[in-house]
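Throughout our pipeline, every protein is held as a single compact record rather than as scattered files. Such a record has a labelled line for the sequence and another for the backbone structure tokens. The remainder of this section carries one protein's record, kept here as part of the documentation:
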Amino acid sequence: MPLDPNLVYGTMVGSWIAHLAIPVAVLIAVQQIGPDNWKLWFILGCVGLSLVWQAMWLTVLQTSSCEGIKNVKGIAIGSIVAAAITACMTLIPVYIEPMRLIVSQLLISHKTLLTPAVAHVNDALIDSGNKIFSASIQQNNPEPTAPAQYGGAAITPDEYETQTAQEIAYGTSYWAAFAGAYGIGIGSLFAATCV
């Protein structure tokens, strides 16, 4: 029985959705454990869950096309290839900041890590701008207005580390989602063989 393309597309979409959630779940788990080299554990966790997920769906594809599990080696090779794709796509946002910021800045605002002197100047400029803006609003509209928002673009090193972890999770979700879909597509070439 030939491989059903609708089933392949359906599993690709399912894998895409699952791989959106995998990095966020792994980051939460890794933060609970709190290892020093959390990026390594994050990557290993994403790849490990991806391997299990891909193997499960590639088994479903083989069962459908071969009327049962006939080629475990094909499923294993397909799963390993799919997990390798996920590993490559996971490394991109973890280690290449612009590639993760492209995605993460759609969801959260990136704040920079500044030296204390530059952070003080930055906060003073924002404070002055807020005061001028508030004075301008009060001249044109004597009604009471909401208080101006304070707080500069600079953050502490601990806040920056937390922000980086969130950005990595969001960026990896995007990149891993496509890896999950491609993994099923390419892995199905191996897994759908019945011999």
Q: What stands out?
A: Residues 114-154 form one domain. The longest helix spans residues 157-191. Residues 146-150 have pLDDT under 50 and may be disordered. Residues 48 and 85 are 12 Å apart (CA to CA).
